[in-house]
Specification:
The chain is mostly helical. The protein contains 7 helices and 4 strands; from the N terminus they run H-H-E-E-H-E-E-H-H-H-H. It starts with a helix and ends in an 11-residue tail after the last helix.
Length: 172
């Protein structure tokens, strides 16, 4: 009687462990390129939508973008609020980068450089809006850094245009 009471929980525990191992095997079989593709989209979308708000037409920067960089945005460095240098140039560069870099990410073209550009932009945004680090800047930086390190995966134009470049990567 005692043996049945002890073996029944062990049998259930064994079954549960086998189920967990099977599930883990299924999850590990997901090709690495799929989460990298999802990450490229997840990082691209907020920057692209932000970029769209900075334009009133083809290569015509909105008045709102000019106003933000000239009057509102300040760099918070060592407890000081420093105005952006060259506000029209910074507004234009930001607007262009927020359109071009996300498109490159989604296509998987120049992915590491596009992600590096968005990582640098995230750092500048952090200096501009220091309170946004937990909800926005930290996840953006983590996604960008992941793409810089691991690349785009195989579902990308980079893999077609520069196939030898990915030899050292572990791709799925």
């Amino acid at each position: 009687m005692m043996t049945e009471a002890v073996t029944a929980p062990r049998g259930r525990l064994s079954s549960l462990l086998a189920l967990v191992q099977h599930a883990e095997g299924l999850l590990a079989a997901i090709p690495r390129s799929l989460p990298l593709l999802a990450m490229r989209f997840a990082l691209a979308v907020p920057f692209f939508y932000s970029g769209l708000t900075k334009w009133d037409g083809f290569l015509h920067l909105s008045n709102g973008a000019h106003y933000l960089f000239e009057e509102e945005f300040k760099l918070h460095i060592f407890g000081n609020e420093i105005p952006y240098p060259f506000p029209p140039a910074m507004a234009t560069a930001s607007g262009l980068a927020e359109i071009i870099l996300p498109i490159l990410l989604v296509l998987g073209l120049g992915t590491r450089f596009a992600a590096l550009g968005l990582l640098v932009m995230t750092g500048i945004i952090q200096l501009t809006v220091p309170d946004g680090w937990a909800n926005f800047h930290l996840p953006w930086a983590a996604m960008a850094l992941t793409l810089v390190v691991f690349g785009p995966g195989r579902i990308a134009l980079d893999a077609i245009v520069l196939p030898g470049r990915h030899r050292g990567e572990v791709l799925g």
